[in-house]
Amino acid sequence: MLNRYPLWKYLLILCVLVAGLIYALPNLYPEDPAIQVSSSGGATLEESQVERLRDALSEADIAVKRVESDDNSALFRLKSDDDQLEARDIVAEMLDDDYTVALNLAESTPAWLESLGAAPMNLGLDLRGGVHFALQVDMQAALTQRLEVNASAIRQLLRSENIRYRDTQVEGNSLTLAFANAEDRSEARELIGNQFPDFQYENRDGGQTAVLAMSLTQQQIDEIQDYAISQNITTLRNRVNELGVAEALVQRQGPDRIVVELPGVQDTAAAKRVVGATANLEFRLAARPDTPDSETETIAFRNDESRTAEVMRDVIITGDSVSSASTSFDENGRPQVNINLDGTGGTLMNNATRSNIGRGMAVIYIDNKTRTRMVMEDGKRVEKRIPYVERGIISLATIQSALSNRFRITGLDSPTEADELALLLRSGSLAAPIYFVAERTIGPSLGQANIEQGVLSVQIGMLLVVLFMLVRYRAFGVVANLALMTNLILLVAAMSMLGATLTMPGIAGIVLTLGMAVDANVLIFERIREEIRAKLPIQQAIHAGYERAFTSILDGNLTTLLVAVILFSIGTGPVKGFAVTLSLGILTSLFTGIMVSRAMVNLSIGGKPLKKLWI
Q: Where's it mainly located (predicted)?
């Protein structure tokens, strides 16, 4: 019989619609503005403290919707966004340094929906609020670090060939090596020149020494600086992923800056600490008593600066060789970081330790920092950034046996320190230090205004489409409008299930989708009209309209889908948000415009004798 679906198709459509409704529902429950109180350093959060904090907020006329607490944290759900900052300041004043108070946004999805895995859509920075960082990459430090690595490799090369040298120095874009005489310098230059052909070499007179200067070419400088930017972007993206921030933006801005946007992040201090961390690790052997002073360095312990140790200047491996890192506790209940090295790092570690059993090996924590000072330049007081490096020994342990690609780091002060160190090692080290030059916090109130304007635009667009379809196609316009509403529900559900992030460009994609969603029905209905004008019976005209318009509908939507996929693959940030919404909208439009609308037509008039069709 014409215009009748088999039972399984009706059941399939029903299941999809029910699932879509369930997974779209959480978006009707907006997140609550909240403040999060967390304890650290072994402190606990007593119930009496929580009540005292709640009373203080009430006295300040700040309405608290609900408090959720345990031994280590408490979440105060507030009724108004405007109260968040004031509530945080009040609570922070009442607690000491053992507690951290941060802004938060708490989900309010009902428990029965959460049990089904339903959750609201992620909102982008322009809707949910968050933080925007502009980071400056220290290009000179990138060159210095590369020269330091080359200096270490050259010292090992000279020692392996028994060529004596006195000192190595890194200055600007050059590396200088001092030798006792010109013969040693000549032999070293020939050897080094074969291994490091990208340098420009120059012999200099150092008074009592013969000096060999190695300078980077301009091409090498440009390549190192470009690598520093790209590697830092990769590392920052890994760190953002570790933070669990959805649809974060990390991209280059100009020749030496990186922009980082973190939607939904309210604890800006924690985000800044992790994103801006420039720490790395170095593994070095302890110096022997007879080691020349030029090959050693004195470094203090990180947790006790009164203690120092003599270590070799040459580095066995750095944190760049770490493939994975996790935290646990040692046999004494103290935090430790479990390290896995990559293939090259494991080989270097094994070569260094198997011939030095019984010798100490130091794990050195290196942090590139900056301090600002007000200085006079051209008669004006300006802020000048002065970079400096902090080095500290985390642990100095005796090598008991040859190490491979697995070992552990102990001597950490707290589990928090261990977690952050493991995070930084997993995400990779920076190729050059970065400094914060701009920081902007976008509050949820601004995001709420964007959401309200976006919802209004969707409502206006949908209303205009609904009115047009009713006027143009009458009863069939009702079918198209019901399919359109179903399409919006399925689109929201799909974005929620996939964890896609909704931004203002994404809302524009939804508005565009609603306008395009009725295209399929327009093609179908116009085809039905043509068949009726050609004197075809009504049921056959309906059947022909759906069947013959299918190819045109599919071709038109596939070309648009292809463009959306290209936008997603080459775009970043807002462009990706628009592409995701558009792609999902095309797929849901095909389903509702063809299957859902036809199911409604089949159920209402399918197989019935009709003399006139209201279309």
A: membrane
Q: H or E element: which one contains 555?
A: helix 538-570
Residue 501 contacts residue 249 (beta carbons within 8 Å): no
Q: Read off the pLDDT of each residue in 552-557 and give the average, rounded to a whole number.
A: 86
- Residue 311 dihedral angles phi and psi, to the nearest 5°: -125, 160
Round to whole Å and give the CA distance between 190 and 178: 15
Q: List pLDDT tens digits, range 87-144.
A: 888 888 888 766 777 777 778 888 889 888 888 887 777 777 778 888 888 888 888 8
Residue 295 DSSP one-character state: G
Structure-block tokens of residue 249: 């933006």
401 residue type, one letter: S
Residues 6+ apart with CB under 8 A from 526: none
Q: Decide: 374 and 383 in contact? Cβ < 8 Å.
A: yes
Query: For 370, left (φ over 0), alpha (ψ -120 to 50), or beta?
Result: beta
CATH superfamily of the domain spanning 7-26+443-605? Multidrug efflux transporter AcrB transmembrane domain (1.20.1640.10)
pLDDT digits (tens, 9 = 90+) for 247-304: 577 888 888 889 888 876 666 666 776 676 666 778 899 898 888 887 888 999 877 7
CATH code linked to domain 32-106:
3.30.70.260
**Contacts of residue 109, Cβ cutoff 8 Å, sequence gap at least 6:** 26, 29, 118, 119, 120
* Strand, helix or coil for residue 98: coil
Assessment of whether the complete model's pTM goes beyond 0.85: no
**Do 551 and 590 form a contact (C-beta atoms < 8 A)?**
no
CB 121 within 8 A of CB 451: no
**Structural domain 139-220, CATH architecture:** 2-Layer Sandwich (3.30)
Q: What is the CATH number of domain 277-442?
A: 3.30.1360.200
Give the distance, in angstroms, between the CA of residue 444 and the centroid of all CA atoms in the same chain: 20
Q: Tell me the one-letter amino acid at 605.
A: I
Question: Are the folds of 7-26+443-605 and 277-442 the same?
Answer: no
Q: 3-state SS of 432-461?
A: CCEEEEEEEEECHHHHHHHHHHHHHHHHHH
Using the predicted structure, report yes or no on whether residue 242 has a pLDDT greater than 80. Answer: no
β-bridge pairing 501-502 and 122-123: parallel
Strand 122-123 relative to strand 64-69: parallel, antiparallel, unpaired? unpaired
Q: What DSSP character marks residue 591?
A: I
Judged against a pLDDT cut of 60, whether residue 226 lies above it is answered with yes
Written as six digits, the tokens of 3 are 């215009």
